[in-house]
């Protein structure tokens, strides 16, 4: 019996973890040795003088901090330069404290010098948040910024840090791309702005803007993340200029702290399964459909009420007749879908001395999909190191290495599992898959794709990201920072298709290999100045010079007629047929200058202004540079005399802002055009020539978005309830538009700066401690909701008066969202008493789809098409509940979307009612079953007339995203085990959802590919949808452990 692809073992994980744990032990030993000499005299208890400096979170001296010997009233206060001196016993414990910061306890251990870096207390209102090129106190932020901490991120068991924040930030819409392991989600912040250019946000990791977009986040272990800050309004994102048009997500990884070395280990293991299975027809149901599709009639128009044909004429395949006689039916979905599993292991070591702090970790993640040849494996290693040379110089690095392997699997597995005739026979008498389960010669056995080595699509990515920095404290309040972030990425995709796969159908095997090498870097020089004048006026100035560059090389080769299938895509030179050989070089550079000024008066009246200049190599000469201003203001009303002592309103701040950002997310050579090889006739010979692959546009410039925002932040009952409300309005002009051209031009489209869009929306979020009882029962509720509208306000087509016209060919309409569904409206099925109406209105017969005559002229034409809906929801958001009692905690998180429409390619493929392939189990029309749900099956139509009208659905849903029950063991037990923290938990993800969309999952994302009519070039569909090859999303139950030594 042929071996089906087995579940992947964990051997590589064991060897990898063993190697890195040894490295971690070495790192631990190195820092232990550094302190060993200082601890050698700890057994002698005597009084000595301890001196040092207390620093704030930015490394600046902190005056006025308290230093107290634990258990006594003896203490001192730090001086103007953060310095202190105190007499303490060699084994004393010093407690360092300051308002707004978490207290720290450090054992003297005979040391004479102890320097301390204080940490912001997250429970305080004025916690420090990352805002881009610096930090600000939360209470002084005038832009719209949302922060998600490590605790919220780590609750979700996933390979993707982006998936971990889904539904937790108002205005951030994250949609999954099915259940294939290792797939990235689609992220939209405050909707879409662009029609043809990218709508993806900018990701900034440890201060370095990422070159590779969404892929960069896939390389980051979620458990390495300290915070994620989402910059949403243009005033906050304008400092990133052309990179910030679609919002910015700032990711800060965990760094070391002064103090004892801590070793942490976390792990989880979970079992996955499909969230929901679709209802396909069984053998008897399919037989009924096939009989109906083959009714007898003089013409096709007469068959709707003709007699049923004998089974011998309907089922011309003996296998079908045999299955009917035996009552045999095959559920191919059940054969290809299985339980999968997911596991994650993370070891981290952090700590440091007075001058050097570190945080290092290794991680291993492995997910075996619910289809056996689909899996994802990732190894990560990180070292964050900070070293203070002296009071002037500080250096550091954030070194990350990752290696991932994704077995993408064959799309034919799901496509064939859904389409195969259930009357077919999948196995022979030996239990081996039969390549063609029936004799139709079309549908192949999906199990053939799962035979070990039959189909391989392996994607390996190795990344080294190693930003370094140098801080120079020039003077008090004046600091120079240089950041350099090299980013190296190697990607290799190897694909092999054996002879007996859906691609080759018995023809010789073929293979292809694609290698991608990318080197990019970011160099930034930043000057920060902060000073307080007369204890009232706080001024901050930031100046930036930056350059970012990327060079990407791609090499690809294809071969066929491979002599030995066991070699897969290796040793391709042995193949007898050489296919396409291709190579590509893509380079771009972005140069930038930025200035920002922050001012506040007594922390009550806040102002910020910024200006950034960007020069992009992607754009045309004379249009490469543009300027992006941002301005915002705030009023902390709660700091006014009439509210400062209020017991009800503990915080109240108004915010307004205006900003401009740009977008240049197009091909770097769009302004020049690229050549492609083409064959042409030269006499009687076939000659090779070259032509432009697309039309260059020498005038291509910036797409610019201008946004006005207003918001309010509030805190009630001593901040027991906190929240925010925001409104924004964005106008995007000079759209980078991929405009469709007529086929006679020889090109499909051309990029131009034409058109504009407008987006408006509201966001609301609130978090409250419903019950707050330290040491007892606690209940916290978080809720966020967002809504927005989107419309096209200008297009290039004009009427005789110069007014913009709709572009029906591209399905762009003035006053409508970018992605709309423009089609006929189905109102039912023509019934037996509507023969004349069906014929006169649409040229149809009873049993076919009945359309609405929108203009009432009695005939269905193109003029009767309307906008049926859009993929934009009316609103979306999330609800979180967290309960705590003693050491137990229970949390559950719901995510919801309401009001968007789905255009389902899945139904196009699986509801064709053709009678040759399997079908969704729908209530189809017959003369004896006059339903209005689905039309009569017809073997002469590969899909029903106007069958697209069967594929529009309400995409609203409510989903239980996460459920976690955990227990934190008490210190009375952990201290006996010499550990500081021990937590066990059980968690469930995607456990349940409620939706009228009857397929695997209503959570679908934007389609990147557009379907165009081959003759007219018109776009047939775009936007949300799922294809027949989509892997079902997964639910998972997992158990986990977190322990810190």
What does this protein structure show overall?
By secondary structure, the chain is mainly beta. The protein has a domain at 457-603. Helices cover 10% and strands 46% of the residues. The chain is built from 13 helices and 53 strands. The strands form 13 sheets. It has a 23-stranded antiparallel beta sheet that branches. A five-stranded mixed beta sheet has the order 12-17-18-15-16. Strand 29 and strand 30 form a beta hairpin. Residues 5-45 and 1008-1023 have low confidence and may be disordered.
Mass-distribution shape: globular
Bin the strand percentage: over 45%
Name the helicity range. Answer: under 10%
Strand tally is 53
Report how far apart the termini are: 50 Å
User: Sheet with the most strands?
Assistant: 23 strands, antiparallel
Low-confidence parts, pLDDT < 50 over ≥5 residues? 5-45, 1008-1023
Structural class: mainly beta
Show the helix and strand layout:
Blueprint: H1 11-39, E1 47-55, E2 66-69, E3 75-77, E4 83-89, E5 93-97, E6 101-102, E7 104-107, E8 116-117, E9 119-120, E10 128-130, E11 135-137, E12 145-149, H2 150-154, H3 161-164, E13 172-175, E14 186-189, E15 202-205, E16 208-209, H4 214-218, E17 225-231, H5 234-237, E18 248-253, E19 259-274, H6 283-293, H7 311-314, H8 318-326, H9 332-336, E20 340-352, E21 356-368, E22 375-388, E23 393-407, H10 412-419, E24 455-465, E25 468-475, E26 478-497, E27 510-533, E28 537-560, E29 577-601, E30 605-616, E31 625-636, E32 649-663, E33 675-682, E34 685-692, E35 703-716, E36 721-733, E37 736-740, E38 749-753, E39 756-771, E40 777-794, E41 820-823, E42 826-829, H11 835-842, E43 849-851, E44 866-870, E45 875-885, E46 888-898, E47 901-903, H12 905-910, E48 952-954, E49 957-968, H13 971-974, E50 981-995, E51 1006-1012, E52 1019-1024, E53 1034-1044
Parallel strand pairs: 1-8, 15-18
Antiparallel strand pairs: 1-4, 2-3, 2-5, 5-7, 6-9, 10-11, 12-17, 13-14, 15-16, 17-18, 19-20, 19-53, 20-21, 21-22, 22-23, 23-24, 23-25, 24-26, 25-26, 26-27, 27-28, 28-29, 29-30, 30-31, 31-32, 32-35, 33-34, 35-36, 36-39, 37-38, 39-40, 40-45, 41-44, 42-43, 45-46, 46-49, 47-48, 49-50, 50-53, 51-52
